[in-house]
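Build the 3D complex.
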Amino acid sequence: VTTGRLLAIFIVVATVALIVVGTLWPVQSAVAMAGAGASLLSSSSSAQAAVENLAGEIGRQDWERAYSSLANKSEFTETEFVRDLTGNYASLRTYATLDSSDLRPLHASADEAQIQLKLRWSTVVGTFSDTRTLQVVRTDDHWAVSWPIVKEPRVPPQVIPVNYLRWDVIYRGPADDWGAQDVEAPHVRIIDMHPVDRSAGVVIMGELLNEDVVPAFVKVKATLLAKDGSAIASEDSFDKISHVLLPKQVTPFLITFHDVALSQVDSVHMNPSAILIAASADPVIEIEDQRLNPAPEASFTGKLINQSGQVVNVAHVLGTFYDKDGQLVWVADQYVDRALLPETPISFAMSIPADIASKVSSERAITATYSSGRFQ
Amino acid sequence: MKRRFTFFLGGLVLAAMPLAFAQSGSLGLPKTVEAGSAFSIQSTGSGKAVLYIVGPGQVLRRSVQLGEPASFASGDLHNAGHYLAVLVSGSSTENGAFDVTAAHEPAVLSFLAKPSRVAVDSRDGISGVVYVFDTFQNLVLAPTKVSFQLSGVAGAAQTRTVLTRNGVASTKMNSAAKEGSGQFVAQVGNATGTRVIQQVPGEPCDLRMSARPSGQRLAVQTDPVRDCSGNVVPDGTIVTFTETYNGGESTVDAPLKQGVARAEMPAYNGAKISVATGVVLGNEIRWGK
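Done.
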């Protein structure tokens, strides 16, 4: 009985001690998860601490506290600050959560500092980063961040006439007799295909053409076959493809087989599939100022311009890269985190592996778009 | 499945009969009966008996007077196939077999036409297959004439007459040179089946575009896009305009609307602008200079 009492007393004392320790010296990540206030964080007694605090408040979406801590809040409203971070219109930013942040001091003096803040956001289609160079100023005994606001341009109210083109499909019904034909699936064709050995595994890339007169929802599946004819692995292109292909449109595709070496592969079985879908021919997106930037940090950059009247909430850019002989050498993609407003350029950048970049001679880019409320 | 179950049931009925009753005997059975037609089975002897008819998907039981014909009305037997007849009379059993064949008059046809959408000028590009059935959905195995006709687009209708073999007839037709919906009709007796074949333009031919200033930018536009037979390529077809300048490039994928694709591009002096759709390249122009 005595042993039991001692054990109970020990558990109670240990629990109280742990609660006290956790309250007085909380782990930063736990504070963020709990949504606790700034009183538990380090005070803005240094420029770096001020930026860290701001990043934490942005991560917790504590917009009011983040805005109130800024040194230049008289230059914009809290709403404009929030829209700078989450977008004016629904986009990947709107539903993103802050994954992590990095600080890089650029310059510091007694009353002023310049710090680069890199915010890495997570979305359903991967991560994107937002890098801002912050001026941090000292006021009395604490430091405050001057936020470099980026105001999204506002499109003036107007009517843009659009000659809207859409395909609707009537499929066969359950009451149709045996033999009654259904609508024919669109005819698609792989016009180019290359397997490549990469450090991550085997990469199959190519291009797919919709040679029909109707829109298609497409995907490409590849199966690697060994010398004895057995299947090594089977994968599909997932989002490394533009799934909706309008008539005569070409999309690149890329399929990665992790942990497989090309030397193991005897042949590849490609299986492109297409389903007839209802689709819209709009919006039209111009890809302007496309440039290949050489290594190091080789990239393909450009600007998307929405030539239609409707807002595009999510845009996905796919780049196809060719060598000097016109052979396909790489496929890369990038989601654009901001909504595309009519006639408003939005930049994109996608990285190209350094060893590939030196071979690239020309490129072709296409965009796949999603607009909320659009029938597709 | 249903037929297998019926055979199983019929088998059970026959197995349940005491072997002691089985005696050799003869039934006046027809060799074949046309599905759905009336027929009779003659028996010999006197007294009462029970006649069982067991076949695919069907079992009949009739009380009969021996020596008199057992009559079956039109429609009593309607599934084509091999049937067993068993006459059970007191301690004796007589049995025999006969075939029920499909009715000679075709009543229903199943028409498979492929593809439902085909490019113009495709030789043997359209295929039609017809299965001929009687009114009870039995496949008519006797050779039957089926006529196929493809019409509805400019030019004379194409007609073929094909004799069925084992109940099936097939043919191939050429698609027309002009786009449009074709009516593909198959006819057997009074039964007809119609399918719509959409004949669509082929690859664009002689793709050309022009450019003109539009404010600070360039407005590029194709001529009406047609295939090599002169058919207008359908709206929605994607045309890609590409402009290269000073190491940079701009592209626009624009859909054809009312036969023409339009887009706006940046205006760079000396820029080279090209146009393409699918794997077909068009002309190239140089702006300025």
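Chain B touches chain A through 40 residues (CB under 8 Å).
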